User: Fold this.
Amino acid sequence: MSREFQTQKEFQMLTNELNRKRKQDEQENNSSSSKHLRNKNNTTIMKNILQNTASSASKIIPKINFDIEKKSNATGTISSSKDTHSKDSLVTKRITSSSRLFSSKKISTNSTTGTKRIIKKRPAWDTKGRLQDLEMESKENKKLIEGLLKSLSGKIKIQEKDNNELKQVHKKTTETNKSLTQKIQELTELIETLREQNTSLESQLKPYDELKDKNTKLEEKIKNIENSVKIKNDEIDKLNDIITNQTASISILKNEELNFKATIEAKDCIIKTKDDEIERMKHEIEVLKEQYQLSNRKRIEEESLRRKMHNEILELKGNIRVFCRVRPVLTTESNGKPIKDIISDIQYPDDERKIVLTQQSTTALGNTVPKLYHFSFDKVFQDNVGQGEIFEDISQLVQSALDGYNVCIFAYGQTGSGKTYTMEGIPDDPEKIGMIPRAVEQIFIAAKELKEKGWKYEMEGQYLEIYNETIRDLLGDGDLSKKHEIKHNLHTGKTTVTDTTVIKVHTPKQVHHLLKKAQQNRSVGATLCNERSSRSHSVFIFKLSGVNSITEDTCEGTLNLIDLAGSERLSQSGSTGDRLKETQAINKSLSCLSDVIAALANKDQHIPYRNSKLTYLLQNSLGGNSKTLMFVNISPLANNFQETICSLRFATKVNKCQIGTAKRSFKS
Assistant:
C-alpha cells in the first residue's frame, strides 16, 4: 500500500507542476512583444512534462507489477498475474500515446471507452487552445491512472489473502513431512534388521549347498567310472583277439629272425673288410695331407724366392716396374645389355705377364679383320683379382722402405679406370682397402717384429695434392694462400715440400684418420666420363727413421704413394668452366710425365722435370734414387678401347726406362 501512495503522490506532484506552468503561461500571454517565443517555449515545456509523466509511469508500473508477480508466484495464481501485467502494459501504452498525441495533434483515442475524436491542429500562435488540449488530455490520464490504482489495490488485497492461505498449507506440509521422515527411519531400521537375518540364514545354508555340490560331483564320477569300466572291458576283448593274432605273427617272425641273423653275420664280415680298407685309406689321406702341406710350403717359399729374385733382377736392371690391372665391369654400366656386348676382347696368356687386346677392323675391300695388340709387363692382374692378392706382389717393395730405400708407387690410367680404388680402396671394408692402408699396416707389423732385434722406428706422414699446377696441403687448415715449394737434396737424394703439415704417427688407426681427412679435402668433380673424378694428383709421403740400439745402425726410408688424376678427352668429358681448366691442367701434367719418360727411355742428357709440378716432385723417384713401381689401370669397356691402348703403350715406355739402381740410406 505504501507503494500505491507513493505513486499517487508522484502523480499529484506532476499535476501540480502542470497547473503551475499553465498559470505562468496565462500571465505571460499579456505581453505581446514576446508572444511567439513564449509559445514555442511553452510547447517545449509541455512536451517535456508529458514525456516525464510517461517515463515516471513506466518506472512506477513495473515496480507494482513486480510485487504482484512475486505474490502470484507464491500463491500459484498465474492467470491473475497475466491480467495485471496486461493492464499495466495498457497504462504504459496509454501514457506514451498521450505524449505522441501531443507531438502529432491529429487523432486522440479514449482508452477507457475506445472512442476516437479528431483534434484539429491549432495554429502556432494559439497557445491558449493548445494548453486547453493538454489540460484535457492530462485530466483523462489522471482518471485512467486513478482507476488502475484502485484496481491494483483490490488485487493486492486478494494476493495477500492467498499468501496467508499458502502459509497455512506450507505449515501443514512441513508437519506431514516430519511424520513421513520418522516413518522412513523406522522402515530403514527394519530393513537393516531383515538384512542381518538374511545374512545369518545364508551362512547357515552354505554347508548344505557345499554338500549338495559334492554329491553331484560324486554322482558324475561314478557315471564316468562306469563308462570307463565298460570301455576297458571292450578294449580287453579286442586285446585278447590281438594277442591271438600276434602269437601267430611271432612264430613267423622268429623264423625270419633266424634268416636275418645269418644275413647279418655275412654283412658283418663284409663291413669288417670295408673298415680295414677305410683305415688304410685314412692313413693314405694323412700321408697325402702331409705331402700337400710340405709341397704348399715349398711352393710358397719358391714363390717368395721367385719374387725376391725377380725384384733383385729388376733392381739390377734399374727399370721401373709396371703392373697392369683390369677393373671389372660395374653393374651400372651394363644398362641391361649382355656384358660381352659392352666389353673389349681381352685375352690373358698363361704366364700372367702378358695381355692381348683384339680389335675388329675393316679393310679397304670391306672385309673384317681382327687386329691384335700384344703387351707384356712385370705382372698382369685380371678383373677378378682382389686387393689382398695384388698387395702380396708389392709387399717386398714396401718392406724396402724399412731397410732405408726410397720407394715410389703410383697409379696411372684414364679417368674411371680404378686408380683411386687401387690406391685407397674402401676404408670400411677390410677386404677392399687399398694399397696405401695395407702398406702402412705392413710397415707397422714389420717394425714391431724388428723391435726384438733392437730397431726402433719413428714415422711421419704428410698428404699433398697438385691441383691446377698448385701444391695444396690436404692435412692443413685449408689456407689456400700458402705457397709450397719443392726442394731436392742432391747429396741425400731426398725430396721435401716446404710449409706443409707433417704429423708423427704411432698406430695404423692414426694413419687411417689422416687418410680419411685427406679424402674429404681432396678435389673431386663429376664429368661425363666419371661422376666422381679426381681432379688432382694426390701424394702420400710416409717417412721412416730407424735406430738400432744394439748395433747403433741408422736408416732412413721414404714411401711415396701417388694417385694420379685420370687422363680424359675434352670431347668425351664435356668439361666446361672450372672443369675445363682442371682437365687442361691434368692433361698437361700427364703430357709432361710422358715427355720425361720418353727422355729417360732415349737417355737424353736433359730431362724436362721442371715442366710441371708433378714431374718435378717425382724427379728422384724417376731419376734413379728410388725403387719405383707403376700401376697402369685400364677399363674393360669397348667404348674406352682407344684410351686403354694409349695407357698400355705409355706403360710399355715406362717399363723400358732404366733409372739405375736405388741407393740405400744406411749408416753403421
